[in-house]
Amino acid sequence: MAEYRTHLKIIGDILSTTRDDLQDEDGATVTYLIRKANISHSRISLILKTLVSQGLLEKVDSRRSNKYKISQTGREFLQAYNTFSGFATNFGLAI
Fold first, then answer.
1. What pTM, to 2 d.p., does this model score?
2. What's the total number of domains in the chain?
3. Percentages (nearest 5) of helix, strand, coil residues in the chain
4. Which of 30, 55, 71, 75 is the one with CA 20 to 30 A from 81?
């Protein structure tokens, strides 16, 4: 049986992708994030809107498409998330 990712895990995947896997310094496109985070367009659109409004991602308007890159607040959140995730895993908990 396939294990489903939590909403928090998906957010972690998106933030990690925008931090680590950028194709260029301008940010990651929605298409790139859909592929890397393995999520539908309609769902990622809502998540991206939330992450931008919370200050975890920055929306960069380019000539051809919107791109997203991680903000300093997003980096801090991702670091705290990874620390907590590791802590939970050590106790046998899944988040």
1. 0.86
2. 1
3. 55, 15, 30
4. 30
